[in-house]
Amino acid sequence: MKKRSLTIVVLVILGVILGVIVIDFLNNRPDRRGENPYALKVDKYREVDPELISHKETRNFSLGVMIPSGIFYYKKSLYITGNSSLVVLALDGSPADMHETLPHSTCLAVNDQYIFIGFPNFVAKYDHSGELLQKWTELGESTVITSLAIKDNYVFVADAGNRRVVIYSDQGEVTGEFEGKSETEAGHGFIVPSPNFDLAVNSFGELWVVNPGKHAIENYSDDGRMRGFWENASFDIDGFLGCCNPARITVMDDGSFVTSEKGMVRIKIYDQSGQLKSVVAPPDLFKEEGKAPDVCVDENGVVYALDFDKDVVRVFEPI
Amino acid sequence: MEEKDKGLSRRKFINDGVRLTLGLTVVGTGVFSLKRSASGKDYVWQIDPVKCTQCGRCATECVKSDSAVKCVHAYDLCGYCDLCGGYFKPGAKLQTGAENQLCPTAAIQRRFIEEPYFEYIIDEELCIGCAKCVKGCSAFGNGSLHLQIRHDLCLNCNQCAIATSCPSDAISRVPADKPYIIKGDFTSEEEG
Questions:
Q1: Residue B158 and residue B67 in one domain
Q2: Nearest CA in chain B to A189
Q3: d(C-alpha B92, C-alpha A276), whole Å
């Protein structure tokens, strides 16, 4: 009897120990922990007033195995660079053309005569049949070309590595460069902490350059003198936050800007003076802490966003 | 008599077996230790900043009361921004008052360099490894702030308590001769 009681007691103790171990194991599983007491809550800033949203995502164009680097809208076609190729899509997403290019392209710009493609430290000029016409002289070791814009016979090249804009003739001669400095306090010069340095020429022929470290978009004359700027550093929806935003821009026919931000990814439209007009795509549509999509826009206000996190072209049409 | 011999033989067999097992264990352990010290390959625990999801457990799970995990700043990646997502609370005024700071222990010092650049320095005495600033820097900035296990503080436990509870398997053993995984070093390592 005594031996039996002892056995029961030992079994009970073993059962309790086993129970504690199992409960502790289950409670301490990584997916069963309580809320992070140090969580940084940014959900509030991901929410966007539905009244502000002006576009709706209607289609996606898959790019297959292509890892894209840049997109440009020109005369009812989308030009997309990536890998060692240039793909031309019709606006319904059907492939219209494809050409082989030099590897490691970063950006592009297109006009009637040429297709200019930027590579890390040089620019190459192609014709519309995809033939390589010129490979321009390399700009140096620390050069990181991130954007191109065409005005008449000139090509403006954004060099993030050296925080400057280099001006080329369309025949490949360097005719000037500027670093965005001026005598006024505003003209600090370009602050480019990461390779997100974009520029664009609008339909009025004005050159606009992003100063990402200042959350500013600055207007320059053709020879690089600052003429004006607007800036808005803010956590709120009407501003730009974090490092290097807006990371990408494009311009609409009326001179408005379409901006694309990294980190908390969102695409917005601003008027020429920097007033927020609307939100094309709120952060919820993109990967958290994602890359800024490259953007272009057609005459009807349809925004094409090249989503680098999904490798697709996302089409946002006005509501 | 035969029965007794059989019994003795069985006992002897068991005793010999136990002796042999113990002997092999001792010799095996010795050989393993010698081999390990001869190869010089020691391992330590470290966080892969790319895998880290800033869950906050590095601050609460370490067996040391002040976690051995600290925030590290890769200055090469930093934008030296005025509006730093790792320093300021979202929506706060751009002033250095405690109410505007994201860090719960005020472990980040902000120093003016020249207009418009600011440097952000981690005070490791105050840092608890909560990763709040890392989250802010990743969400809004270049991700220059990241967590690392400091080996002058880490006890290098046989089983790291933080690694056990890490939801993203970001903590693993790395060779002791390369004990840190610093973000800014990725490209130099690749080039090297």
A1: yes
A2: B116
A3: 21
pLDDT under 70 in chain A at which residues?
1, 28-33, 65, 182-187
Task: Work out how many CB contacts closer than 8 A connect A with B.
Answer: 88
Residues of A with Cβ-Cβ distance to B159 under 8 angstroms? none
Which CATH superfamily includes the segment(s) A51-318?
TolB, C-terminal domain (2.120.10.30)
Stated pTM of the model? 0.79
DSSP alpha helix (H) spans, chain B: 2-39, 57-61, 132-140, 161-165, 186-191
User: A72-106 burial string, b = 16+ CB within 10 Å, else e?
Assistant: bbbeebbbbbbbebbbbbebeeeeeeebebeeebb
Domain count within chain B: 2
B21, B54: one domain? no
Q: Residue A120: is the preceding peptide bond cis (ω within 30°)? A: no
Cβ–Cβ below 8 Å for A244 and B59: no
User: Burial code of A190-223, b = ≥16 C-beta within 10 A, e = fewer?
Assistant: bbbbbbbbbbbbbeeebbbbbbbbbbbbbbbebe
- Residues A317/A298, Cβ–Cβ less than 8 Å: no
Nearest to A191, CA basis, from A229, A139, A221: A229
Which residues does residue A294 pair with via DSSP β-bridges, in sequence order? A306
| Interface contact flag, A194 B167, Cβ < 8 Å | no
Rounded Cα–Cα distance for residues B79 and A169 (Å): 32
Task: Say if the Cβ atoms of A194 and B79 lie within 8 Å.
Answer: yes
B150 and B170 assigned to the same domain: yes
The amino acid present at A73, given as its one-letter code, is Y
Q: CB-side exposure of A315: number of CA atoms within 13 Å?
A: 16
Average pLDDT estimate for B82-97: 84
C-beta atoms of A242 and B81 within 8 A: yes
Contact A63, A80 (CB under 8 A): yes
Domain ranges of chain A: 51-318
User: In this structure, is residue B35 part of a structural domain?
Assistant: yes
Give the C-alpha separation, A212 to A248, whole Å: 9
Q: What are phi and psi of A89, to 5 degrees?
A: -115, 145
> Is B192 domain-assigned?
no
DSSP string, A8-72: HHHHHHHHHHHHHHHHHHHHTSGGG----TT----HHHH---GGGB-EEEEEEEE-TT--EEEEE
User: Which pLDDT tens digit goes with each residue over B6-50?
Assistant: 556 888 888 889 989 999 999 988 887 777 666 667 899 999 999
In a domain, residue B49? The reply is: yes
